[in-house]
Write a structure and sequence with these properties.
heterodimer, A: 423 residues, alpha/beta, FAD/NAD(P)-binding domain, 3 domains, 5-stranded parallel beta sheet, 23% helix, B: 105 residues, mainly alpha, 5 helices, 48% helix, globular
Chain lengths: 423, 105
């Protein structure tokens, strides 16, 4: 009996398990999946919890609902991967040996990486919304908050779902308007980036939305510490932003188990071939989703597109064939913009988000980089698709590779150079 | 590309203000670029950082993040901001003759 072990039963791991269990003969292959938690969280839904749009119950289902019958499921934290000997040590003292290993251990927030973040104000005036606990605590706080300075800070890049901070401030603007207290709240987005978003065309259009909604933007701010006494965040170059409510997106890092295994980079993400999804170091280890160090977004759509590529390449590896499927960095993200509207962006390693129609050129129904009601409906409808098709590994009518069809190409702007005189 | 300056000691920068042609870089030019950035006299500690990020660029095709830099070069974040005030990742890349770090998506 040959063995495939999947570490992590989040979006990526669960999709891979379902795809592989359909394709591989159960008499020849044993599939095992490992996770520390029994609950599956619909993470894109966390964003809506602080504003009372979703409740906790809307984003949680038992993981067991989504596993194929024959899979071997183990609930335990991972101690470490011994990649030299093809064995995973679990914290429940079990040892799992494998022929192939798929690492889908994701990323997690690490508020302790920032001095003062988890001191006395943590979960009193400082919240995150990347965990269910944080999102629920923030919802409770907002119910009775009377207003003041709301600061959303991104500690450092990369973060999971790089559009989430923008969506959060857009939804906050909408939320306070509806409560009739928008004038009592100052909203400021404080980012280490030099613009509202990482990609220039999208950054320009999203930056316009911030202005329109009267949301302040502070750029190139690398947080050094939180001053709990004076309620301010201080950057390494000693700039300060005061807050009454700090919504933090702390440093995102890969699993501690990856660090213990010596397989990660400085953020515990695993060096991975950006096209084949094979680990740079070990031929029988593949990596998917947030756990990789790929220069792509950390998002469920990316994990979904990767799953098609990884599936193909893993089957090739099993058959001793070259790995021919190539991941292009494809990401596809709805951006909730408040007031029942949304945007959609579609991009990859080489092509930044551009305006146009998606998925049918000229028709849509979704509009790229434009605010429409249809995009909002797409975002809200996606939760159904996620639970009922996506993580079950069913085919979706979306190709893993990004398509240029329906996209408006930007004018090529000539690079302007300048001459610097040194005398 | 502007060529109006016939000055002997001039150098072409890209649109981000980083050296346009990496082959133009020399250790002497690094000091000139540091002067231009208001960093002043380059010390051994500056050079530790410059040499480290140039090596990383050779290996990976991009300058390292501040986190990686502080973890691997033995220079703390605090010191790094003293050496290259206001945005050490970009400033150090400028002096080292490297393009603007791509950073993360």
């Amino acid at each position: 009996m040959k063995k495939i072990v999947i570490l992590g039963a989040g979006t990526a791991g669960t999709m891979m398990l379902n795809k592989l269990s359909k394709a591989l003969d159960p008499k020849e292959w044993q599939l095992t999946i490992v996770d520390k938690e029994k609950a599956h969280y619909y993470q894109p839904g966390f964003l809506f919890i602080p504003f009372g749009i979703y409740e906790k119950e809307d984003v949680i289902k038992p993981k067991d609902n989504f596993f194929p019958k024959l899979a071997n499921v183990v609930y335990s934290p991972i101690d470490r991967i011994d990649a030299e000997n093809n064995v995973v040590h679990l914290q429940n003292d079990q040892k799992l040996d494998y022929d192939y290993l798929i690492v889908a251990t994701g990323s997690e927030i690490c508020p302790d990486e920032i001095e003062g973040m988890t001191d006395e104000l943590w979960y009193k005036s400082i919240f995150d919304f990347y965990t269910i606990e944080g999102a629920v605590a923030l919802a409770e706080f907002l119910k009775t908050w009377e207003g003041g300075e709301m600061v959303l800070n991104i500690a450092e890049m990369p973060i999971k779902c790089p559009v989430a901070p923008l969506e959060f401030v857009f939804l906050a603007d909408d939320y306070f308007k509806k409560k009739g207290m928008r004038d009592d709240v100052d909203i400021t987005l404080v980012t280490p980036l030099d613009a509202a978003f990482t990609k220039p065309v999208a950054a320009k259009s999203l930056g316009g939305f911030l202005e329109e909604k009267n949301i302040n933007l502070v750029t190139e701010f690398n947080i050094g510490r939180v001053d709990n006494e004076q309620k301010k965040i201080v950057s390494w170059d000693e700039r300060e932003v005061e807050f009454d409510l700090l919504v933090s997106i702390p440093t995102n890092m890969g699993s501690k188990a990856i660090e213990r295994s010596g397989l990660g980079d400085e953020l515990n993400f695993i060096p991975t071939n950006k096209h084949t999804l094979q680990s740079d170091e070990y031929e029988n280890i593949f990596v998917i989703g947030d756990a990789t160090n790929l220069p792509s977004s950390k998002a469920g759509s990316v994990a979904h597109f990767e799953s098609d590529i990884l599936f193909e390449n893993l089957l090739s590896a099993i058959e001793g064939k070259p790995l021919e499927a190539q991941f292009d960095g494809h990401a596809n993200c709805f951006i909730e913009s408040g007031g029942g509207k949304g945007l959609l962006i579609d991009f990859n390693y080489d092509v930044e988000p551009l305006p146009g129609k998606f998925p049918i050129p000229g028709v849509g129904p979704f509009s790229l980089l434009k605010e429409t009601r249809m995009n909002h409906l797409g975002k809200m409808g996606f939760r159904w698709l996620y639970w009922n098709a996506l993580i079950k590994g069913r085919e979706l009518p979306l190709e893993p590779q990004m398509s240029m069809a329906g996209k408006q190409k930007p004018k090529i702007i000539e690079q302007k150079t300048q001459t610097l005189n040194l005398n | 590309m502007s060529t109006e300056t016939k000055n002997e000691k001039s150098v072409v920068l890209d649109q981000d203000g980083h050296l346009a042609n990496r082959e133009d870089w020399t250790k002497e030019l690094a000091q000139d670029l540091a002067d231009h950035e208001g960093i002043g006299e380059l010390t051994n500690r500056h050079w530790d950082v410059i040499n480290y990020i140039r090596e990383e660029y050779e290996k990976n095709g991009d300058a390292p993040s501040i986190r990686k830099l502080t973890k691997e070069s033995g220079v703390s974040t605090k010191e790094l901001y003293k050496l290259f005030p206001k945005g050490p990742a970009k400033k150090a890349a400028k002096v080292a003759g490297l393009p603007k770090p791509k950073g993360c998506i």
